Amino acid sequence: MHHTVFIFLCFIQLALFTSNANAEAVEKYVDISLRDDVYTDYLVFLNDRDVLSIDSFEGVRIRRDVVDMIIAQQALALGGFQSKFNYFPGRSNYRNAKLLEQGSLLISFDTYWLEDAKAIDYAIFVSEPVIRKGEYVAGIYANPKNESVFNILYLEDLNQFTAVSTPKWKTDWATLSSLPLKELIREDRWLGMARMVDKMWVDFMLMPFYRSEDKIYRLENITLKPVENVAVVLNDSRHFVISRAHPLGSEAFSALQKGLKILREQKKIARAYKEAGFFIDRNKYKILNPVQ
Known about the structure:
Elements: H1 2-27, E1 29-35, H2 36-46, H3 64-78, E2 84-90, H4 95-102, E3 107-113, H5 114-118, E4 124-126, E5 137-142, E6 162-165, H6 170-177, E7 183-186, H7 190-198, E8 205-208, E9 217-219, E10 222-226, E11 230-233, E12 238-243, H8 249-265, H9 268-275, E13 286-287
Helix pairs in contact: 3-8
């Protein structure tokens, strides 16, 4: 009888240990939501490689958002954060701000403008700048058939054209509002903006530069092309944001800051954005709104 009880107790202890071990294993994975088009390009660029092994940022489908994702994960790992990530792609990431506030989302792998981060700074930790103020230079993207847009050379040329953005992106909206446009139209979804420009309901939108032989951006049935040798400065810095309410928030923020410092000292951050085509040679472009 005692022998049977002993075996039963051993079984219970083993079951509890296994349950705890499984719980710990599950806890090592953190859920991350992000835009589905970014996730698709991320997977294509990685091509089954370990994200922590990426050292060259030249390749298929690389762009600013994908570089953000890779830098975030490498910085976290360098800083000692050991959890892995489960990705949940979707059409919009505006709900991410609410998830960050609630503690349901640990980190946004898409960097935030500092002005946007300030709006929820009570709920988030804000990293050191990844893209520093003045470094973000965007292209004027339009449907290749919208020929008149591609004649833009000077700031005053913008007064005959319409653009689209959202006030939810404070820096983008403020930048476009400061330009002498015919009209600035609101659309809160990025994909909606791209479709409006593709259909020529709106003349152009601002988009990051990225490396491509023909410079044309393609997504689904959307085709957009940047005006040659012309750019616009978005004069704000971009940062990773981490939820204060998430159980791993403090740990992740400490690791992220350490890792970003290491990557910055190794000059890998600037090199990544340059190789991806996001950081351009400004000597080859006319900046329509130079920072004074």
